[in-house]
Input
Amino acid sequence: MSTVRQALAALDRDAAGRSMMDLAGELYPIPRSLTGDGVRATLGRIGRRIPLELHELPTGTPVLDWTVPREWNPREAWIRDPAGRKVVDFADHNLHLVGYSAPVHRRVTLDELRPHLHSLPEQPDLIPYRTSYYEETWGFCLPHRLFESLPDVEYEVFIDASLEDGAMTWGEYLLPGATAEEVLISSHVCHPRLANDNLSGIAVAVHLAEALARIPGRRYSYRFLFAPGGIGAIAWLARNRDRLETFRHGLIAANLGDGGAFHYKKSRHGDREIDRAVAAALAGLGEDLVTEDFFPFGYDERQYCSPGFDLPVGVLTRTPWGRYSEYHTSADDLSFIAADALAGSLAAYLAIAAVLEEGVAAPPAAEDGQRSAAHTGLDAPSAQARPLRTAGGRRYRNLEPFGEPQLGRRGLYGGLGGAGREGFEIAMLWVLNQSDGERSLGDIAERSGLPPGVVGEAAEALREAGLLEEVE
Ligand code: ZN
Output
């Protein structure tokens, strides 16, 4: 029995659950975003529990196909009616302000104000979560009932925020083991006041780090990464590109405090040791587990599992993002997460670590070729193509395979295809993720379930943008 398994058996779930709720409660009011003092404050609180190493990269630093954005720090934001009453106020709830809103101070009519207001007609009492990282604008989010009740008068709009050159911050904690082989646990730290989609993952990761730190004789080194979603993972990959040969297994921790069953999104290959370990660990705990094959959007697996890196990273959540009605709204608050759910999630992560430490989920030796190829940072086209040679058609190679290329800069977001914007964008992500020179567009259409015409249209747009080359 591994020492991790002993620690799992000894886990005091009540105490751990309470402690995770306390941490979530401490972090809940902090106005986080991609960058800024909210992220620093969050990492500062985490750093009181585990010794985080902080990293900052200045605005404008190139990272893979991206650059570090400007730093955003909101201070005050409100909409005031002619009687001087603040009808919407960032001080009441930090979801009221669209993330990355530019500063503004002006008087506007209701008609001028409306395009800057975001609400949810179907959930009229909730405040939605909106950001605009890469397109400069400003805006407020509010309950639809309030939106509908606004009289047609003149409003004073005030946003005091800085959006200027600064830095992007992330934190890491490396817990060394007997070997340099690493397990990565990655949580995003960029969501403001949202409990399940953010704080639950942070709380579980912090407590997993604390639990593992107390266990002697671990084989693996465990790296805990707390970084803003998307650009944070891209920056981490850019900075760690030459040391990924020690990367063995990765999990993305999020949505771990709701009452739903566990859900595992497999790594890009779907048959790596981490994929087997998750299934074995959850079965061992007697927990229900829903599994789903990889798809190239969601959390930071879209970066880790981009074809150039192709790291064995899965996503273990309870109810996945976008599949609960509280998701990305003010209803994802502290009452939506529960101590026992968090404790069960911590137990699941500990059980996975135990299975990895015991080495009982390793795939058959024949698959080692895939794994060592991934460690070089190069794709392994012959191994990857194997399961999917079903349909014919053109084949392409992704020319920007490390991380997701920035499509917005190339005018590819908003470029409408026949399936409407969303289907077209998803098709581009599939084509980029799967185009290794071996898989055909037919293979990609089959795997993604998207209409072949849309996949072809996406490939053509990507080729025109210089992101793909056709392979004979
Ligand atoms: Zn989210």
Q: What stands out?
A: The first helix runs from residue 3 to 9.
